[in-house]
Design goal:
about 110 residues; 434 Repressor (Amino-terminal Domain); about 50% helix
Length: about 110
């Protein structure tokens, strides 16, 4: 069983992913710029790798940001979450009865 990722490594990974996406880079492109393996980059972004200072510096250089920007927390833009509980829909018969108005559903003409 794999141990949960350390919060610092998760923050670092989310920050790197956010900056990479802002610049329109794939993991492979960033890994090439930083001269590290793509699978290593993937595990860093997921917070699973205890990354060395040298590799942090390489990634910072590839992203054109100071190292301190990778280490501090950064606001990650996430898509809006859907409603936690969808509104309850009445069964069709109850909806028809609730909305029923004379002449609305049946024409006698």
């Amino acid at each position: 069983m794999r141990r949960p990722a350390h919060p610092i490594l998760q923050t670092l990974g989310l920050t790197i992913r956010s900056l990479r996406r802002e610049r329109g880079l794939s993991q492979e492109a960033l890994a090439d710029l930083a001269q590290i393996d793509r699978s290593y980059m993937s595990s860093v972004e997921r917070g699973l790798r205890n990354i060395s200072v040298l590799n942090i510096a390489r990634i910072a250089t590839a992203l054109d940001v100071p190292v301190r920007d990778l280490l501090g927390p950064r606001e990650v833009v996430r898509p809006a979450a859907p409603l936690a509980v969808p509104p309850r829909r009445l069964p069709i018969r109850e909806r028809l009865e609730a909305d029923w108005k004379p002449g609305r559903y049946l024409s006698l003409c």
